[in-house]
Each structure stands twice: as structure tokens, then as C-alpha cells.
Design a protein that fits this description.
Shape: rod-shaped
Distance between the termini: 181 Å
Order of helices and strands: HEEEEH
Strand content: 5-15%
Length: 159
């Protein structure tokens, strides 16, 4: 061997080739990733209807062929269904309700029994009013009889 000549050992050549091989692979992968990104951006900014779509705006719109037909709406939900046509029912007397014969939301027809009211107090009022009516009827009968006769009777006795 000459002192002025440098000879590369096979290990050094192999190491250089390994470094170059790694660089080529890394550069190849980076070029491939860059190419895929360019294609993706290009496909996301398609020209639809003369306007460019901004890919950062969210989901891409899709087009669908529309057929003529009936429109059906199906709604899935949970909760309560409330009727707009409701009536508030009040009693003409203010007594205690003893039984309710319907439940909320039940459909009723004319003549259906809705509730039962304790009529013991109302019965007493009716009996009292009947007695007052009978007394007034008796008084009226007596006054009519007194008008028909020419005689006047004293209501109080004494001198």
C-alpha cells in the first residue's frame, strides 16, 4: 500500500451504501406522502356547480338522484303526547269528590259518568229548601183563602 493513497475498506463502503440507502428511502417516503396530500387536497376542492368547495368547511356534500313520489315522515321520539283539545270540568256545587270514573287523557262521550260527589251536605240543603218551600206554599194557600172570605180574623187574642 502506498502512503499517499487512501483505500476504502469494505466496511466503510458498506456503511456509506447503508447511509445512502436510508436517505433514498426517507426521501422516497416523504415524496410519496407529499404526493398523497396533494391528491387529497385536490379531490376535496372539486368544482361543483361552478363553485369551489372549501374542504375546511366540514363534510363534503353528496348528490343524490331524486325520484317523484309521496313524502313519508317517520318520527322516533320518547315523551308524552298532549291533546290540544281539552276541557276543564267544574261542578256546580262545591262538595267532596268521592270517586273519579275516568283517567287523564281518556276519550269520553256525552253521558259518561266522570266523577261522584258526596251529596250528603247538598241533600241537607235540598231538604231545608223543600221545608221552606212547603211553609211558603202553606202561607200562600192561607192568604189566598183569607182573600176569598170577607171575614178578618185576629191573629192575637186579648182585650
Amino acid at each position: 500500500m502506498n502512503n499517499g493513497e487512501q483505500t476504502a475498506s469494505p466496511n466503510k463502503i458498506k456503511a456509506l451504501w447503508q447511509r445512502r440507502k436510508k436517505r433514498i428511502i426517507v426521501i422516497g417516503v416523504l415524496v410519496l406522502i407529499l404526493l398523497l396530500l396533494v391528491l387529497k387536497v385536490r379531490s376535496c376542492t372539486q368544482n361543483i356547480g361552478g363553485e369551489m368547495i372549501d374542504p375546511s368547511a366540514g363534510m363534503m356534500p353528496s348528490t343524490v338522484m331524486v325520484d317523484r313520489g309521496d313524502v313519508q315522515r317517520v318520527i322516533y321520539a320518547t315523551g308524552s303526547v298532549m291533546e290540544n283539545n281539552t276541557e276543564e270540568i267544574t261542578a256546580e256545587v262545591s262538595d267532596k269528590v268521592t270517586a273519579i270514573h275516568v283517567y287523564e287523557g281518556q276519550e269520553v262521550t256525552v253521558g259518561d259518568s266522570l266523577y261522584t260527589i258526596d251529596d250528603s251536605e247538598a241533600g241537607l240543603v235540598i231538604r231545608k229548601d223543600r221545608l221552606v218551600w212547603q211553609k211558603k206554599q202553606k202561607d200562600l194557600t192561607e192568604q189566598i183563602a183569607a182573600l176569598k172570605s170577607n171575614e178578618i180574623y185576629s191573629e192575637v187574642g186579648g182585650v
